Amino acid sequence: MTILIRCAFSGEHFHGTQKQPDRRTVQGEFEKVLSMIHDQRIKTVISSRLDSQVNALDFALSYSVENVPFSMNHLHYYLRRVLPKDIVIHLVESVEDSFSARFSCLGKTYLYQIQNGTRHNPLLNTFTYSPIVPLDENALEEAGRLFVGRHDFRPFATPEKKDENTILTIDAFDMEKVDDILQIRFHGKSFLRYQVRFLVGSMIQHAKGILALDEIKRLLGGESFRFRKLKAEPQGLTLERLFYERDEQSTSTPLSEREKAI
Known about the structure:
alpha+beta, 9 strands, about 25% strand
């Protein structure tokens, strides 16, 4: 049997999502708890490898196990009881054996939030970036729109392998302001390591007059020249939404309804 878990978490006290020795990670917390519940070693597949302090409103793990002597409702209840308070379970269900939290994902939406007012709320610091001086919002948006489409994003990421495919597509970019918080969203099928943080960093550099639009276009066009990459602060980034084919077929609570409960 293959089981899918959808959850949200605050990344403040996690060293990312992927399991690491002697480090507190989301995958590590789940595997420890699931191994105890199933009384056997459980290895999970995670939907995304997120950095330290990055948050998630929609994160997925899948794993396979032979015998499950309890219902999915009971498993959901057990997980809620024993997982730490900075992880919230949205959904637990059995899925087809071919399902993978990573490889079955059709797309992702990343949200980056910036407190762009003159007075910052310290209670929001765990999920926003607060610049010392408010950023030019028009400049942020005009830079962000350049990234939509199919490009070689190597200059705006840290590829993990020399031969890794860095030509990817960003399907949509959106920016809106809610009170004094800028909400920047990128949607695409997949993203490279640190890609969203470097994209937002480039937008910030353009808003500060450090990186010109023409330079961003040249980098996206494959031209190579030296420039100082800026990786936006991690806590401002949230994995907001995952998309799976089964979402439209599931009889479980729709994600939009689950998001309202967060």
